[in-house]
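Hello,

Our lab assistant flagged a job as stuck in the queue for most of the afternoon. It eventually completed. Since we weren't sure the result was trustworthy after the delay, we are filing this so someone can double-check. Below is the sequence as submitted and the structure that was eventually returned. Let us know if re-running is recommended.
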Amino acid sequence: MLTNIPVVKLGIVAVSRDCFPIELSQKRRKAIVEAYKGEIYECPVTVENEKDMLKAVADVTEAGCNALAVFLGNFGPETPETLIAKNFDGPCMYVAAAEGDGDMINGRGDAFCGMLNCSYNLGMRHLKGYIPEYPVGTAEELAEKIGEFVPIARAILGLKDLKIITFGPRPQDFFACNAPIKGLYELGVEIEENSELDLLVSYKAHAGDKRIDDICKDMAKEMGEGKYYPDLLARMAQFELTLLDWAEAHKGARKYVAFADKCWPAFPEAFGFEPCYVNSRLASRGIPVSCEVDIYGALSEYIGMCVSGDTVTLLDINNSVPKYIYDEDGIEKLGYKLTDTFMGFHCGNTPECKLCSSRAVKYQLIQHRLLEPKGSEPDFTRGTLEGDIAAGDITFYRLQCDSEGVLRSYIAEGEVLDVPTRSFGGIGIFAIPEMGRFYRHVLIQKRYPHHGAVAFGHYGKSLFEVFKFLGVSDIAYNQPKTLPYPTENPWA
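-- returned structure --
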């Protein structure tokens, strides 16, 4: 269960232009509430003027609402309806009623027209309102659109109260993880940057903590016998407590936290283990811990958690799929070209619930080669969570601040194939339609880093709306072959 993301309490406020029957908006609002499949607070105040607007905002605030659907049951009052977004402390969506009540004389609301002026006024006042792709509909249609707004609102609320906590400078040879923090402030996200030494001092202070034993038992139960190193549990449990206590002590005025931590090369030698498994356990609760101090990786993970309501992971867009695996496992029969596939990998930060049953706590092979004597048994390079990632739908995405300080993003839906990787780490064979072109003309062309966030399911639609609401103008995706990229050679 994710405990580090907001719970959306949704309200609906109807508005009415005073030259239209107020009953039209009230009746249509009631129909939406009856059609909505979920919990929604129906504000009894119908807004016709600015005083009504203040009463409605006070009412929904007292009711505990943190997100609103503003409903134009008829043309709507342009100033009061847009001032709701200014005075309400939470995201607002705007939708309008379609005609069809049977009376096209006294029962015509003209909300189709009113939505144009609503949007115009929001823009003039520099106010943000979420407007779906097609914002006009029947009660049933609008109830569905309001339901789609909930994960979007959850992400907006989460970012508003998010603090990203970092430990350690970003690795020297991983400049791709370096990015200006200016973009975080533009999004309203707070950041606290710390030294690895701060983390080590806090870790040592947790030695002998009475809670360690219970966490060790939970780790053993989660992994199962033979799937972990018994002598390593206490070290990892001590680290888990260190991060959780740091989050509570340092979140300050914010409600939610994410971490971006230095995990190599000094970490395993100083702490006595690799942090990957602990990172995966926090991610399974809704607290992302990105590798290599990847701040925008942690940010992307958190957004995905809010949108999906599920845990996510962060992976390297790592290596091509060998032709022999493509041939031996019949990937072509699944409808994918070899260039549509790649392997997503990290040392072992993917939550165990997203791995195949053969998963286990192991050691970091690359770090073992680098840091421990040749031919020796792994010691402090143990602590990764390894296994093939379970097959299923995924969304690969990232929100990034580029070297010029501009926020940009990409989204690509695909799947993890039910094909053994024959490799090590937390790893899977990913298939994304037209990945080869996307790789060249988005990931390389727009200078994205090697890390991508992975949500377990198809969430492109919601992520696109979140990024659009945040003001990200460049939202790239894996374009079909019939739609060339601007930099794609038409004669290639």
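-- support follow-up --
The delay was a queue issue, not a problem with the job. The result is valid. The chain has a mean pLDDT of 96. The radius of gyration is 25 Å.
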